[in-house]
Design brief:
Number of helices: 12
Structural class: alpha/beta
Largest sheet: 8 strands, mixed
Helix content: 40-55%
Shape: globular
Order of helices and strands: HEEEHEHEHEHHHHHEHEHH
Number of domains: 2
Distance between the termini: 41 Å
Strand order of the largest sheet: 1-2-4-3-5-6-7-8
CATH topology of the largest domain: Rossmann fold
CATH superfamily of the largest domain: Alpha/Beta hydrolase fold, catalytic domain
CATH class of the largest domain: Alpha Beta
Length: 325
């Protein structure tokens, strides 16, 4: 699947400049980094620079084509866009699965600092644009760099544990696959086991015959990040923030997170948008019925290009960006 997606994306991006090697000396990493704006002259973008912050998984600098329509939209609005391949992806050194959310925050802070020098920008010329798991990365950084231009969060959950509970128990329950009692029991058992932070073999020995074990690498990743909760970072946040949710998102508890972040307890969150007919990726649910990201889904996304996205997603972004021109 990855080779198939790479070939299609390569064909679509052949006209654009190549990514550059970028060294993060403090973290002993060399990343594949790319900035889009005209002929890569990102310091010339009239409205500044937007840095993309990845969600979960082995994501490269353009998310195998997912970012393409978003990048084109932001370029048209006068913004340069910067992204990188995660450690261990597409030639970037290291391994993203060994990183805690704090490691990811430190990496983002270093890239912000370097971008200011590289493109001759101030903090006020830089915005953050995060996806899903970036909820435990971008707000923490933006709460420390208080004069960034803005932050946009797409499909941001508040809590790692609540997110896991919803995806593995509540969502199947709503679909009739689990009873209430079993869903709650399984969740409590699983998290009680994870919080013991056993070595991997001991973890395996505690699983029942019907349980599906995660890989050793994923297990260690979960142990590092299981307590992640963005509420504290959002409360200390001073950067104006837009959050966007798809009403048909099956990956996170949209209703709960929408209520949480619309509560008025987070003054820097200026707008929380709920888009009907959009899924976790902001794609149209009348075209993408399932959120299983397989070859067919990706091929369809690349075929539809910007038409894959719910129109309201881009109109919401447009209205938000107009505040900062």
């Amino acid at each position: 699947m990855s080779s198939f997606r790479f070939l299609i994306v390569f064909a679509l991006l052949a006209f654009s400049s190549s990514p550059q090697a970028y060294t993060v000396s403090a973290m002993n990493l060399q990343l594949e980094l790319k900035c889009w704006y005209g002929n890569n002259s990102c310091q010339k973008a009239k409205n500044g620079l937007i840095i993309l912050v990845h969600g979960d998984g082995p994501i490269n600098y353009d998310a195998d084509g997912y970012y393409e329509a978003i990048i084109n939209f932001l370029n048209d609005k006068g913004y340069a866009v910067l992204s990188w391949s995660k450690p261990g992806v597409n030639g970037s050194t290291g391994d993203w699965l060994t990183h805690s959310m704090r490691d990811r925050q430190n990496l983002l802070k270093q890239i912000i600092a370097d971008s200011k020098k590289r493109y001759q920008l101030s903090n006020k010329n830089i915005g953050l644009f995060g996806f899903s798991q970036a909820t435990w990365v971008a707000p923490a950084v933006a709460s420390q760099i208080v004069d960034l231009k803005f932050m946009v969060g797409v499909s941001f959950p508040a809590s790692w544990e609540e997110q896991s509970f919803y995806r593995t128990t509540l969502a199947p329950r709503y679909q009739g696959e689990l009873s209430d009692d079993r869903a709650l029991r399984d969740h409590r058992r699983d998290f009680a086991l994870l919080r013991k932070k056993l070595d991997y073999q001991s973890y395996l020995s505690k699983l029942g015959p019907a349980d599906q074990a995660i890989s050793p690498e994923r297990y260690e990743f979960v142990l590092k990040n299981i307590d992640a909760d963005a509420r504290g970072d959002f409360k200390s946040l001073k950067v104006p923030t837009l959050l966007i949710y798809g009403k048909d998102d099956k990956n996170i508890n949209v209703a709960k997170n929408y209520r949480e972040f619309s509560s008025g307890n987070y003054p820097s969150i200026r707008k929380v948008a709920l888009i009907k007919g959009a899924n976790h990726l902001m794609h149209k649910t009348d075209i993408f019925g399932s959120e299983d990201i397989d070859m067919a889904y990706w091929a369809k996304m690349l075929w539809y290009e910007e038409q894959a996205y719910n129109y309201e997603f881009f109109s919401t972004l447009s209205a938000w960006l107009s505040r900062f021109e």
